[in-house]
Design a protein that fits this description.
This protein is an alpha+beta fold. The chain contains 2 helices and 3 strands. The protein is 31% helix and 12% strand. Strand 1 and strand 2 form a beta hairpin.
């Protein structure tokens, strides 16, 4: 019987088999979505409303780790379009505009 390698996470003297960690692909990373075919960048928005565009996934992941909201360009444009449309519709209902 061969000696098993010691797992660094176990207390001293406790031996166990080292289990391989599951591989995480780019699509499975939480927080930063995979780019769609139509998107070439990520848009990050901080809680104050500042918006920055990233072309490198590593920078987008850093922004997400710092608490910024990270979306693909397509997701961002869709979201602001929906928000603008909702604002425009509610403003038209609230006010009697001549146009």
């Amino acid at each position: 019987m061969s000696e098993l390698p010691r797992n660094r996470l176990q207390p001293f003297g406790v031996e166990s088999r080292l289990m391989p960690l599951p591989r995480v692909t780019r699509k499975e990373r939480p927080g930063v979505p995979a780019l769609e075919r139509q998107s070439g960048s990520w848009i990050a928005t901080n809680p104050d409303g500042q918006v920055v565009e990233f072309f490198n996934r590593a920078n987008a992941e850093k922004a997400h780790a710092a608490g910024w909201r990270v979306e693909t360009a397509l997701q961002y444009l869709g979201r602001i379009h929906r928000e603008a449309k909702a604002t425009r519709t509610s403003a038209a209902l609230d006010d009697d505009l001549p146009f």
